[in-house]
Fold each of these.
Amino acid sequence: MNETLTLLHAHRSIRKFTDQALADGQLERIIGAGQCAATSSFLQGATIIRVSKPESRQKLATYAGNQPYVANAAEFLVFCADLRRAGNCCEQYEKPFSGDYTEHFIIATVDAALLAQNIVVAAESEGLGICYIGGLRNNPREVSDLLQLPQGVYPVFGLCLGYPDQNPEVKPRLPLEVILKQETYNDEGDAALIESYDEKIREYYRTRTGGGHGICWSEQVASLLSEKARPHMRGFLAEQGFHFK
């Protein structure tokens, strides 16, 4: 284990932050590291909105499902998949814009995720804590209106950044054998591994700081996938110009 691997294995979501602000230039340095992430076809199809106004932060906290750390973290960033910039390039060179194809949507969304994950690693390397906020997609229209997002841009998720005011345990991940396959997809033997993992997760929830519900991973996933998941997203994305041709 080298320093980088140790850092990656120590990742936790932080939901309580101190009042300490980031140092001058620290956020820009971290975001610069994020820009070094891979980007398909060099599209660089992501834009970050830094939200600092308290009233805007409070609105976003509400839109995200009343998550107070959205308002309280030292920094809050909204990561957007952005095809508007590419569309402007098409207009500049008098080329037709075909950015409403599904593939372009995937590229821009993946670009946003890769950019964010590089930023997370850079931030954690400097002692900061993070929490991804997918809850912004609970109310994507309200978020987009607040941030004045134009056609061709949508909010993928938010990110809290700040100095941790808690020290939660690292949440165990699935056994490597479950997610790493050789040559072809084969889930034979996964059931026994997941059963053992479920017991580990039950114990994690039972004993973690503050206590927990004590249910296992597979039960969580079954509950998640048995319910409707933000059915408004397809209509919202169409309104933003993503038509999935």
Note: The first strand starts at residue 46 and ends at 51.
Amino acid sequence: MSRKYDNILVAVDGSKQSYDAVQEALEVARRNQAQLKLLYVLNDKLANIPVHLDTMTLYKSVQEHSDFVVEELHKRFEDQAKTLDIVRLTGTPKREIVNYAQENNIDLIIIGSTGLDAIDRLLLGSTTQYVVNHAKCNVLVIK
């Protein structure tokens, strides 16, 4: 990569590919002396899935996963970065990633090729595919 990046965003969901994306982003941020933001989006769509769990139980489970991912990020990468700037949003992950990037002058998004959102893949296509097609900045996909 010959272009200099100032603001890098990494989408994380707890998948192996998202942790690999964070590792790559740390290297790219270091080389570019860039600001690095890690974004976890709590998928609000999960509350509308017809399952035999009440909404509060399902939301609590999703929130616990969010907390687990953030803790895991700190455990895995805290020693590699001065600070981990982790942002948590609620919404549709693919849209929130693109919107956040646009609203925060992100010039590079780094994302795993696959993630944990099987529902989106089945119904609407992958989050990664959406981000690649709709982001206004460069997107680096990590396999």
Note: The CA atoms of residues 19 and 107 lie 20 Å apart.
